[in-house]
Design brief:
Layout: E1 2-4, E2 10-12, E3 20-22, E4 29-34, E5 39-43, E6 48-51, E7 58-60, E8 68-73, E9 78-82, E10 87-91, E11 98-101, E12 110-115, E13 120-124, E14 129-132, E15 139-140, E16 149-154, E17 159-163, E18 169-172
Antiparallel strand pairs: 1-2, 2-3, 4-5, 5-6, 6-7, 8-9, 9-10, 10-11, 12-13, 13-14, 14-15, 16-17, 17-18
Amino acid sequence: LVAVSESGTIHTSTNGITWTDRNTPGRWLGSVAGSGTNWVTVGIVGMVQSSPDGITWTVRSTGGGRGIYSLARNPSKIVAVGFQANGTTESPDGITWNYRWGGLGFNLDIFSMVWTGSLFVVVGDASVAYTSPDGVTWTQRNASFRRFLRSLVWTGTQLVAVGGIDTGLVYTSS
């Protein structure tokens, strides 16, 4: 198991009970995912790090220079989104990254992304939600969100999103 914190510390555990802190050059880390062969962390200052074992971490270049809030993986690649997400950053392995301009709304902050097994789904500020089957072509969805959303999870049957400004809103997909 690998978890990240805004301080830049990466936490690892073999059982979910006992955790070991791993210091890395990263800071403001926001998300972590496994690529199948590597663990990958992303940070608000645009930092991406990868590790084959969760212990030794290497900083990677994304080519996009934007802050990254969230990432998700499907069977063939990892897609990352974030600050003023005019596009996405993607990687087949967590090591080599490519910034892809376009597809998402201009200068929107995308805070969270998941892979549902058939779609990447993102939520963020300005009450936006987008879906994509491949992380390249995005479709804006009509959403009834009244505020920005901070986090999104896929339960296996339903999307659950939380956020809002001082409102504690919870949304579920139908």
